[in-house]
């Protein structure tokens, strides 16, 4: 059965809470590269050169250029039916999107509750005070942008080796989920990948990912791209949980 045992006893409630954990794969069909697929970003760039605090300390220009290029791509991209289906789901029940993505495609699609685990590529922040944040929008990050301490602003993203401040909130959301949907993540990066372990026993977990190698113990895997798999999941949810 699609929903497992819960389906037989539960009727649709407005309090039904779906938590959706998304990764780069949900934005792939919007034209944004994933990280670990063939030809992905980490084949083209060395993590040590562009995505660590040490890289920033060594070569700020190189790090800025990496994020400026990616920001321009994000600005040109548009949400796809995967993002849009999650907005449609919000009309039916409570939906919390927990994303590892630094793009804003969930927000532009219209999702109302989006928690960014790894920050936002559209923002820059002070290296000294993480709460000092500016919205870059269409502007490139240049050395001219400085914080109130006089240091150059850095991209407001979480780099390898840095803490993930939103983890506690994300874990609480997952622990309160009635359904967990994982879309387009290799679940290869911690601590984000550990979030699935916070789901309560018996909570149905579905993974949407076209890669044959993608497995998650206890989860059903829909081997489809997000633009097909997410709308399919949402229409089955709507058909199952009718008022
Ligand atoms: N629809 C759904 N999933 C897809 C699609 C698609 N059209 N195309 C690819 N995928 C899947 C891949 O099969 C893979 O499992 O998306 C996943 C992408 O995995 P990663 O590239 O590892 O991306 P992600 O899991 O988001 O990476 C996590 O790593 O480098 C960091 O900070 C970066 O947030 C990122 C984190």
Automatic annotation (TrEMBL):
Report the EC number(s), separated by commas if there are several: 2.3.1.286
Q: What is known of its domains?
A: 2 residues (Tyr-67 and Arg-70) present in a large hydrophobic pocket are probably involved in substrate specificity. They are important for desuccinylation activity, but dispensable for deacetylation activity.
Catalyses which reaction? N(6)-acetyl-L-lysyl-[protein] + NAD(+) + H2O = 2''-O-acetyl-ADP-D-ribose + nicotinamide + L-lysyl-[protein]; N(6)-succinyl-L-lysyl-[protein] + NAD(+) + H2O = 2''-O-succinyl-ADP-D-ribose + nicotinamide + L-lysyl-[protein]
The protein, known as: NAD-dependent protein deacylase
Species of the source: Halospina denitrificans
Its function, per the record, reads: NAD-dependent lysine deacetylase and desuccinylase that specifically removes acetyl and succinyl groups on target proteins. Modulates the activities of several proteins which are inactive in their acylated form.
Family indicated by similarity: Belongs to the sirtuin family. Class III subfamily.
Does the keyword NAD belong to this entry?
yes
Q: Which residues participate in NAD(+) binding?
A: 23-42, 100-103, 184-186, 226
Q: Where is the active site?
A: 118
